[in-house]
Amino acid sequence: MRRRAALLAFALVGLSGCAQVSQFASRQYYPAQPKFVIDYSPWGTTLDENGLSVVAGAAELALKEPASTVQVVGYASAVGPDDADQSLSEARAQAVESQLVADGVDANRVTGFARGATPYQFSPSEARRVEIDVVKAGF
């Protein structure tokens, strides 16, 4: 049992290191910005209470940083046809963009992307998400 726990801990440390490296690389060597993540149910596109809370937190940060931009990226798990997964990721990103604007963020500061089907490591639920990045001016 201890061996399993040690292997799991090692794997998690390794994964967190990979996430930091990829986040670092995706930021083009800029300091990490706060990231907000909303998880969705299979084929879900509407925000639940938790999702609304996450969007509200991102909107609050964006409003505190008036020169910042907000990037919204929608994802889907690769369990359906490619066109359906693309549409699903677009709908998820659009729902979050609309809620950010409803929460007071200027629509001109919000940019949305849809990545479609994305690979996952352990479970399809990892890929059913929207990520919100509040990017401070100058980064």
Tell me, rounded to a whole number, the average pLDDT.
Answer: 80
Query: SSE order in H/E notation?
Result: HEHEHEE
In percent terms, what proportion of residues is strand? Answer: 15-25%
| Rg, Cα atoms, Å | 16 Å
Sheet with the most strands, sense and barrel status: 4 strands, mixed
Coarse shape: elongated
Topology:
Elements: H1 2-26, E1 35-39, H2 49-64, E2 69-77, H3 82-102, E3 110-118, E4 129-135
Parallel strand pairs: 2-3
Antiparallel strand pairs: 1-4, 2-4
Give a structural overview.
The protein contains three helices and four strands; from the N terminus they run αβαβαββ. It folds into two domains: 30 residues; 103 residues, 2-Layer Sandwich (60s Ribosomal Protein L30, Chain: A). With 139 residues, it is an alpha+beta fold. It has a four-stranded mixed sheet with strand order 1-4-2-3. The longest helix is centred in the first third of the chain and has 25 residues. Helix content is 45%, strand content 22%.
List keywords for this structure.
139 residues, alpha+beta, 60s Ribosomal Protein L30, Chain: A, 4 strands, 45% helix
